[in-house]
Amino acid sequence: MATASFPRVRVETGSAFELIAQLAAFASGPARASLDSGKPWIREVRRLAGRDLSRRAEANGLSLYAELAPIALETDPPHAVEQLIGRLQATPPDTLRYRLLGAAAPPNRAMVSDGAFDRAIGGEDAALAEVMSAMGVTRTARATITRLVTAPPAETKAEVLDLVGAWATHVWPAFAAAEGAAIARDVEARRRRLDEDDPRASVREALGGVELHPGAWVAEVVLVPTVAMRPFVIPVDTETRVIYLCPVADEAFDADPSAPPRRLVKVAAAMGDPLRLRILRLLADEALTATELAQRLGVDRTSLHHHLGILRSAGLLSIDDDGLGGWRYARRPDGVADATAALELYLRTPGG
């Protein structure tokens, strides 16, 4: 679905995307502490993967796994794990390296000088430093970029194929059934809403309150609900579209009518922390960036991002993403009111 002022939007799903989300979640570094699945999921993944596979998965930056999503999207439905592996096998090594770097995406190219990716691959140290400065946001990300640029492409392809295949054998099957059921319910609901509602509103809901302002190069927005990365969103830019690995909604897990809604539990937990209450109070009258919030509250950004993630997951924040000045956070005017109404409804419903 599309409007005159917004790109076409569609919702896609497939086991390949959830495998990618699992790898990204496992490699998400400090953000892992804020995953909805929590420490029990990490411990179980480590047990299933074993020491060597765990080490290899964590050696890559999250962005490398995210760049697998456009490759999975190029397969035919149902976008299965086996199809992703087949597509990787058929991709020439040089092409795969270029894609894993995200070198063709307009936003990535805009962050560096013309031809910087090609010059870095060609061995120019200054160009590699430029790419690292623009995209190497963590030590693991910088190490991943260095390997992609300097290692023989055939070696990179073999390593990625072996890693994805091993993960598909040892880790993904243990979660496939439960995650697949929740994803299927969520995809059905999102497609139905997309047919009935303004696409901008559907995207805003899927991205947890992010108000998207797509660049002129974006012809299509693809929403891919996943379980493993909840509550985070992973954007992946290609030449003509932006793919969002977005969190499956809480409602997709609410199978027991007598249990309190998950979002209600999240709101209660989010409101039970003094710093998070201070954040909501600060955002009542103006939108602020994470840096501005950290300065006003006197906290470091790492700690602040953890709390912002919890507030976002509870549906209490909206975010404006203009693609230039970074995210600006605001309090969703209906967030607390909706939660209060949901609480009153749950408490007065008999048979709980």
What would you say this structure looks like, in words?
The protein is an alpha/beta fold and 352 residues long. The chain has 2 domains: 12-179, no CATH class; 254-348, Winged helix-like DNA-binding domain superfamily/Winged helix DNA-binding domain (Arc Repressor Mutant, subunit A). It is built from 18 helices and 7 strands. It has helices spanning 15-26, 38-58, 62-66, 68-73, 81-90, 93-100, 106-110, 116-121, 125-135, 139-150, 153-170, 172-196, 199-206, 262-270, 274-282, 290-297, 301-313, 335-348, and strands spanning 8-11, 210-212, 220-226, 234-237, 241-247, 317-321, 327-331. Strands 1-3-5-4 form a 4-stranded mixed β-sheet, sandwiched between helices. Strands 2-6-7 form a 3-stranded mixed β-sheet. A hairpin with a 5-residue loop joins strand 6 and strand 7 (327-331). Helix 1 packs across helix 12 (172-196) and helix 14 (262-270) runs antiparallel to helix 17. The longest helix has 25 residues, at 172-196. It is globular and about 65 Å long. The protein starts with 7 loop residues before the first strand and ends with a helix. The model has no long low-confidence stretch (mean pLDDT 90).
